[in-house]
Structure formats: structure tokens, C-alpha cells
Amino acid sequence: MSFAWDTVVGPLIDILKPTTIVEVGAEHGVGSRRLLEFCRKYDGKMHVIDPLSPDQDGARHQAEIFATLLRENPGRLTFHRARSLPLLDEIGPYDAIFIDGDHNWYTVIEELRAVERMALKHGVVPLIAVDDVGWPHGRRDAYFAPETIPAEHRHPSGRGGAIPGSSALVEGGPFGGLIQAEHEGGPRNGVRTAVEDFLRETSLDLACRMIPLRAGSAILLPRDDSPASAPVRHWLDAWSIGETQMSVLWDLSAELLALINTVGPMSSELVALRQRVAEAESGRGAANQR
User: What number of H helices and E strands is found in the chain?
Assistant: First the structure.
């Protein structure tokens, strides 16, 4: 989860003081820990929804993380080892939800529709935060579990890297380990497209701010002109960015994220190589002493 906690999410949660938070997509629990800090601060509760990694070792590691978090937060944290759909229809009411699960149009718009159903049922319109609305998955579907997406909502896809400015997948580019739509853009493709389509169809009166930091976030809030909501309106005004500036920031964020995901694996490989060299040298030194 790549929400900008200190500059974006934290100040907003401090304004809204939600008492029940839902997190969709937790991976290794980094975002979960941050959200639990707010729950403790405001005596709130939290639901985490994640099916865990399909990799056996990854799933075991995640399970250990959340077993620890559950022990540390008795009665405050509920962990659902499940997919968000249709589970979200069974949870509520809640006053904040953070969505960072499967990065494709179908999953995200159905999650948002489930949030709307909850809001209409309980009369509570929550803070909705959606991650990954920028590059690479703002306009390109990724399928962590393709078999869970109806065939009519899956784009032709494959494993290949993505680079900013290229619609087609490329060999050896960043994010090459994911199953992704072969081409970027077009109808019903990507997380940001899902958010925009939801805003056009929803009956909820929502304000939206796109935050072009890291992988990009969309923050959706109920419009409210009451004096009590003045701090929220001030937050919205502070994140009102001109179209030209927004375009430049999206491009810069994409280039930076591409660089990080190119250099990062290389750095890990370099560290591993140095470790192997050190071990070999240590072994050779020991042999020479004998």
C-alpha cells in the first residue's frame, strides 16, 4: 500500500477520526500497522481483507505477520482471509475504507459499488481511498488471480514489463512478473478508469482528489457544506491541483516509479552477489590458513 501517510492520509484521518476502518489488500501489513495506530489513537476497530499470497512461503510469512498483529490488538482487529468480493457486502457500517487489492477495472469498480451499497443501507458515506490510480495500473489492468475475473471483463493479457509512455508490454521492463493487460488505455482498463466510471454512475454526492504521489491515490469524500466539515473542505482545497501541474506530476511519478522498480531488483541482486563473493573469499581465506 503506497498511500502517502504523513502528508495525505494521516492529516485526513486526524480530521475525520473514523471509528471503523476497512483495509482491502494488506500484503505484508505495513499499511495495516499504520492504520492500527490511528485505531488505537481514536479507539477504533479495523477489518483487514486479504486472501494472502498464492505462494506457500509468502502466505506463511503473511499469516505470521497478522497472527502477531491480532495478538497485539485483541478485540480491535479482525482479519478476513478472503477476497474482497463478495465479502464487502457482509461488512458494515464503516466510516473509512482503503482499497489496494487486485489492480483491475472490474475488481475496483465492484468494490466501489459494494461501498455504495453499504453507504445507502446504513446511511454512512465513508472516506474512500483507492491506491494505484497512477502509472502503471491507472490505465492498465493487472490480474493477480485472472480466474476470479469474468472473461468478458478481462483484457488480452500476458507477463511483460511496462514502461511509461508505451502502451504495449515490453520484455524485461518493470513489473514484468505480473499478468497485465497487453495494452494500456481504453474503456474498462485500469484502476483510475474504474474510479472515474464509478463517479459518473454513483448516486452518492462525492468529491474526489487525485494525489499524484508514488503509484497515485484517489481520495473520495462526501460533499458537506456544514460548518463542522470546514476542515475537510480545507483539506480538499489544499489538494486542488491545476490540470497542467497534475499532468506533469503524473509523468514525474511514473518515471520515478519505473526507475525504482528497475534499480531496486538490480540493487537486491548486487547485495546478494556481494554476499556470495564475501562468503567465497571467507572460505578461500580459511582454506589458505589450513
Answer: 8, 9
Query: What are 210's three cell numbers?
Result: 487525485
Query: Would you tell me how many other CB atoms lie within 10 Å of the CB of residue 73?
Result: 18
Cα-based distances in Å from 205 to 112, 202, 221: 14, 8, 8
**Tens-digit pLDDT profile for residues 247-259:** 999 999 998 888 8
- Distances from the Cα of 162 to the Cα of 138, 181, 191, 261, angstroms: 12, 10, 15, 10
- Give the Cβ contact number of residue 150 at 10 Å: 7
Report strand pairing: 206-211 vs 217-222.
antiparallel
162: buried, middle or exposed (CB in 10 Å: 19+, 13-18, 0-12)?
A: buried
Nearest one of 175, 140, 179, 173 to 54, comparing CA atoms = 179
* Residue 22 bridge partners (DSSP): 47, 97
Residue 16: phi and psi, rounded to 5, are -85, -30
pLDDT in tens, 164-180: 999 999 988 889 889 99
Residue 183: alpha-carbon gap to chain centroid:
21
Q: Please measure the distance between the N-terminal and C-terminal CA atoms of the chain and give it in whole angstroms.
A: 52
Q: How far is CA 271 from the centre of its chain?
A: 28
Under 8 Å between Cβ of 70 and 62: no
Verdict on whether the full-model pTM lies above 0.90: no
Determine the Cα–Cα distance for residues 184 and 63; give it in Å rounded to an integer.
Answer: 34
Which amino acid, residue 15? I
Task: Take residue 32 and report the three cell numbers written for it.
Answer: 495495516
Q: Which CATH class is domain 5-289?
A: alpha beta
Question: What cell does 134 get?
Answer: 497512477
